[in-house]
Amino acid sequence: MGRRCAVSHCKSGHRRHKHEKITIFSVPKNNIQVWSERLGCALNEKSCVCEKHFNQNDIKSEKIIAEDGKIIFQQRFSKKSLIKGAMPILNSDEPPMKLAKIDTSAVIEESQDLTEELQNISKFSTLPTNFTVLQNTKSQSDTNEFAIDTEKDTPVTSDSKLHLITSNEVIKSTINLCNTINKNDLNGSKSLFQQICANEIHINQPGAKWNFHKSLEPPILVFSELELASTPTRGENKVPVYTKKVILDDQLYVKVFIGQKNIVECISDLKCQEDLENLLIEVDKMIVCPGGPKVATFKKIHPQCAYKDENNKWRHNYCPTVVTKGSVCQYCVSLHKIFAQHIDRQRTSKKRLVLSPTTKNKVQLLYRRARVQARKLTRKETKIKQITEYIDELQKKMDEIETESLEKKIEKLNLPEPQVVLIRECISTARKKSSTNNRYSNEWMLTCLLLHIRSTATYNMLRENKILPLPSKSTICRYLRSSNTGCGFDEKFFTLFKIKLGKLPEDARHGILTFDEIQLRASLEVNVKNMKFDGLIDFGTENCPDVPNAMVQADHALVFMFSSVKHAFHQPIGMFACKGATSGDALAGLVLKAIVEVEKAGGKVHGIICDGASTNRKLWTKLGISGKLKINEKEGTVTPPKYFFQNPVDDSRVVYAFSDAPHLIKCIRNNLFNKKKFKINGQEVEWRFYQNLFKEDKKLPANLRLCPKLTENHINPTNTAKMRVSFATQVHLIFH
């Protein structure tokens, strides 16, 4: 039998069209699924498709070589071929099969071809009596919903209701179908398929899980049942899958799928809505075998009696898919025992070699020699292990002796605690073979964090040159990310601050509270650690009535710091983000709260320091601080200036208010630069004195200048230069 086109209604390659010169191409193995979807029919490795279903541009029939628009070589191939990546198309111009024009002789001749294709008719599930079986393709596809794999046949069982047909019955059914179609054509009535597509009738589904879909190319109707099931790609996660599908084309050709297996394929004479609804009810009543054990339960096996289905389960090759008794077929139930025996055989069975007597003796001799060598190797490995353990014990004892002696020497030196921590870290690092995965003490880690914060360049230089055993940059960043850097006064911080102050001498706990504000560039970021926005107004847990809405971007930062009076000890204690300068009322509450928290931690606050900003002056007014001498002429009383306020924690002490000295120096210089003239004690000081001095002094050589540090930035300062305290102090020191 010659090759035929597998597309429905295409007669290329058939016996009646053997004189037609049409090239037929084989289906590529790697594109069977794609070709099946595009053509709307089931294809396998042996299927063929004729050239009618391809674009002419995808078919190579000759070789042409042209240059400058002229053909210099042309050769026609003896056999046509497809270009790489060519895809078939369903020829919509091809007229559908008109059964009304088929006579009896043509049907009989056509049935001889059908008889050859229907030699392996198998079982079917029970269908309504108005269905005549044409072909039963029992297969299983792994990927495509409508693809068919004809390699596995479903066995016949006694439980299934099935019937066989002969070629005469096919001929008779085909003739009856043709007569029915002729009558419909003569009467001009629409078929059931056309009525459903035109939404003229509504098909009642068997249940809520059922629905139907329409497809125009090819023209088919799909009635499907949807359920949740686990798949190999999703594991235990449930995904929707189509368990039952009834496919009906425009020629009333019916296919019934259970999962990916086609159990029924036939031509029907559906005449009304009731016939189709009865068919769907019968399919819905079918009890589907769920398969055997899960693939995850039995992984490392390769049985020949079962395969993996689309639900990630093992299914027996003889599984009938549709069962009439029980919920699982007897074949899939037996897989549990079969797989257990299979695994047991794999565990206990030994590889056996079929050898001649002479070769068998040689192999046995080699086995004995191998066992002897294995015993020798085992004894040597045991001895090596014992020696290694003994050496490790001795090494530990030596390390303990060295550690004890080093600790005694360090105690005798009476070194400061930071130096002791450094020596211990150097010794601990030298003992380790690897430069990674080192563990550092808490004291040394804190020192490294402070060093990295103070100067990153210095930290990198000390680490790269191996001057100090410093941790890597990633370790430092990980520790910094783990710390809580929120705004406000943190209770956990003050708990640690209390421990720190407890270790300091008594006189080091007396200090001054300093606070200042700085203007920042507004920025908004997302903190992935707590999934909140950074860059908004944030006063922590403090309740400040004058603070605007918290969902506003901040552009100022307020920082509080405690500084010891007698010791070089400075510690920031709080930070706040605000929009614009903090109001005097809110600032007064924060200052009092900061004093209370420091006093609770063990510190002694004797004063506050701030610059002369307008909000800070309002703070002084709120706290009752004034530098004015108030004279009441009526009462004859004089109120001296008040430069302190009562300590909120200890009534026996007061807190003094100081203005920032560098800020005062800058203010004096800026006022003199802007006003150009001051009068002090009856004498005038003008800014032109400084200008004339700089003008005459810069004429002298560099080594003879009276004011070598005086520059253009001192005399004509820019906005940035006005902020530098050194420029202001150097200008004032010229005439002193």
Automatic annotation (TrEMBL):
<feature type="coiled-coil region">
    <location>
        <begin position="377"/>
        <end position="411"/>
    </location>
</feature>
<protein>
    <submittedName>
        <fullName>Uncharacterized protein LOC112461698</fullName>
    </submittedName>
</protein>
<keyword id="KW-0862">Zinc</keyword>
<keyword id="KW-0479">Metal-binding</keyword>
<dbReference type="InterPro" id="IPR038441">
    <property type="entry name" value="THAP_Znf_sf"/>
</dbReference>
<dbReference type="Pfam" id="PF21787">
    <property type="entry name" value="TNP-like_RNaseH_N"/>
</dbReference>
<keyword id="KW-0863">Zinc-finger</keyword>
<dbReference type="GO" id="GO:0003677">
    <property type="term" value="F:DNA binding"/>
</dbReference>
<dbReference type="Pfam" id="PF21788">
    <property type="entry name" value="TNP-like_GBD"/>
</dbReference>
<keyword id="KW-0175">Coiled coil</keyword>
<feature type="domain" description="THAP-type">
    <location>
        <begin position="1"/>
        <end position="91"/>
    </location>
</feature>
<dbReference type="InterPro" id="IPR048366">
    <property type="entry name" value="TNP-like_GBD"/>
</dbReference>
<dbReference type="InterPro" id="IPR048365">
    <property type="entry name" value="TNP-like_RNaseH_N"/>
</dbReference>
<dbReference type="Pfam" id="PF05485">
    <property type="entry name" value="THAP"/>
</dbReference>
<keyword id="KW-0238">DNA-binding</keyword>
<dbReference type="InterPro" id="IPR006612">
    <property type="entry name" value="THAP_Znf"/>
</dbReference>
<dbReference type="GO" id="GO:0008270">
    <property type="term" value="F:zinc ion binding"/>
</dbReference>
